[in-house]
User: What shape does this take?
Amino acid sequence: MSIVKINALTVPAEQREVLEQRFASRAGAVEGSDGFEWFELLRPVEGTDQYLVYTRWRSEEDFQAWMEGPMKAAHQGGGAGAAGGDRPKPAATGSTVWSFEVVQQTGPKQA
Assistant: This one.
């Protein structure tokens, strides 16, 4: 079964739009990765200032390969937009990654 990684990002109210724009501008960055199955950016509605970044992978090995390859390169300033080595200030003030194995799943009934 698949694995799920949820990155809980603490984002101050004044940085919410910045965070969402950064994720929107990286659209397509993970979708071609081997073993990638799903992505969602979840905006908090009430009771928390944490955004959840949900990704689903075929295996832990696929996730780790992405972390050590494309994700690491993108976060080290090697990607486009790192003009002159200047990196923008992070939008999140904290991050915690949760890991889960999918043990049951279902989808909508087909008509």
User: Anything to note?
Assistant: Confidence is low (pLDDT under 50) at residues 78-84. The two ends are 26 Å apart (CA to CA). DSSP finds two helices and four strands in the chain.
